[in-house]
Amino acid sequence: MIATRDQQEYHWHLNDNKISSDRMVGKHGGHGSHPIHMHPVRPFYRFAATGLGASMWFWLMWRAKKDGPVLLGWRHKWEH
């Protein structure tokens, strides 16, 4: 593979600044090198988040159905 001029300049700048992937990722690399470790989410919380998110969207769509014409100016709020 032939490197383009931009790629050659990019690699030249990396070598010039002494930045290597080992320093950026860590000596071991991969999963264990990051200082923040996220634990897996319990199924109850995933289920609760999905349920609450769905109820929020159902509520928004319900209110848009009921109040949408008033908010868009198609109807006055005192007209039933």
Give a summary of the structure in a few sentences.
By secondary structure, the protein is mostly helical. It has helices spanning 5-16, 21-25, 43-71.
Give a written overview of the molecule.
- The structure is a single chain.
- The model has no long low-confidence stretch (mean pLDDT 76).
- The protein has 80 residues and is mainly alpha-helical.
- The N and C termini lie far apart (71 Å).
- It has three helices and no strands.
- It has helices at 5-16, 21-25, 43-71.
- Could you tell me the strand content as a percent range? under 5%
Number of helices: 3
Shape: elongated
Span from first to last CA? Answer: 71 Å
Main beta sheet strand tally, sense and closure: none
- Name the helicity range: 55-70%
Task: List segments where confidence is low: pLDDT < 50 over at least 5 consecutive residues.
Answer: none
The rounded Rg comes to 27 Å
User: Helix and strand string, N-terminal first?
Assistant: HHH
| Overall pLDDT confidence | 76
Find the count of extended strands (DSSP E, 2+ residues): 0
Helix/strand-derived category reads: mainly alpha
Give the SSE map.
Layout: H1 5-16, H2 21-25, H3 43-71
Summarize this structure as a short list of keywords or feature phrases.
3 helices; 80 residues
